[in-house]
Amino acid sequence: MRKSKPHEFKLRVSPELWDVIEQIRGKKSLNRQINDWLWAMADPDDAAKLAAALRPILKTMGEADRAAFVEHAMGAIKALSAPKPRQRKTRDKPINPEKQT
Asked: Who has the most CB within 10 Å: 11, 53, 69, 92?
């Protein structure tokens, strides 16, 4: 990636949000974390697109309905991410064709 010309700006952040940023970024520089977030918004992956589509729907739900929806969705995600059982390989040809009757 080519080195870009730096653009400086001031950012006002609440102390609560600053704490969240500090926890999330880990060892990344603040600049790297902000760039990562901006790229994620500019070129979202499928998970980000799904989350963006769900946000307005979740806002219309009552608290109980939203909690139930999230619980069921998390169950579906858990089921989808569970290890799949191994499937036995089947043979196209019989093992010993001479013994077929």
From this structure: 69
Give me the phi and psi of 8, to 5 degrees please.
Answer: -100, 145
**Cα–Cα distance measured from residue 90 to residue 67, given in angstroms and rounded to the nearest whole number:** 44
Distances (CA, A) of 6 to 13, 28, 30, 45: 21, 18, 14, 26
Q: Is 34 exposed, middle or buried (0-12, 13-18, 19+ CB in 10 A)?
A: middle
Pure H helices in 26-81:
30-42, 46-60, 63-81
Tens of pLDDT, residues 7-22 = 888 889 999 999 988 8
pLDDT in tens, 24-40: 888 888 888 888 889 98
Residues 6 or more apart whose Cβ sits within 8 Å of residue 28: 36
Q: Which pLDDT score, from 0 to 100, does residue 62 have?
A: 96
What are the two backbone dihedrals, phi and then psi, of residue 80, each rounded to the nearest 5 degrees?
-70, -30
What pTM was estimated for this model as a whole? Answer: 0.51
